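Need residues for this backbone.
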């Protein structure tokens, strides 16, 4: 039985109550790995692409690793579309928010903006501006995001590409999500 707080309104909470919640929250974070894995597995359904959304994520991560990316970048590649599960029209922001406390500002920025940058590959088919990403042309991470999309994301829809399984990436996810979370500033 989990010990409960005394209050029914936050306004009445004591430090003891909030200590209790803090302990629970930190234990909660320790179970993140299983939840992330389950969330990724939810992307393994039917899709109009030649491979599932999960396979796309695995392939993106495999390409990142094959190109010598570090563990954090590989995990970002693996999880860059994870927001699709719950927020398809806002997936970059959701994926980035999940990763933000555990990754560099650069990797956060890449995941946050990759949806817009990926627009380069399809928006012109709808008479829209495929170069919307150019509004960030002078941003220090602009080229990194262009490269993420061109080298890994946009080409990872290939059923014939040798892609590592989800199990392979588990230790990497564990490593990154075991870090002390960075507070939002
Ligand atoms: Fe993607």
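Answer:
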């Amino acid at each position: 039985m989990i010990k409960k707080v005394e209050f029914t309104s936050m306004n009445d909470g004591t430090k003891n109550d909030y200590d209790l919640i803090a302990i629970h929250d930190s234990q909660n974070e320790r179970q993140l790995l299983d939840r992330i894995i389950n969330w990724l597995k939810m992307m393994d359904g039917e899709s109009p692409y030649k491979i599932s959304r999960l396979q796309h994520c695995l392939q993106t991560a495999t390409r990142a690793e094959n190109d010598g990316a570090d563990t954090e970048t590989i995990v970002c590649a693996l999880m860059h579309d994870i927001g699709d599960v719950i927020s398809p029209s806002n997936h970059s922001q959701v994926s980035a928010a999940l990763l933000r406390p555990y990754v560099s500002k650069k990797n956060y920025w890449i995941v946050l903006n990759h949806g817009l940058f990926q627009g380069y590959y399809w928006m012109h088919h709808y008479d829209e501006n495929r170069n919307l990403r150019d509004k960030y042309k002078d941003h220090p991470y602009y080229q990194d995001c262009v490269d993420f999309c061109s080298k890994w994301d946009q080409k990872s829809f290939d059923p014939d590409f040798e892609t590592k399984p989800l199990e392979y990436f588990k230790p990497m996810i564990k490593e990154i999500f075991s870090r002390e979370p960075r507070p939002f500033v």
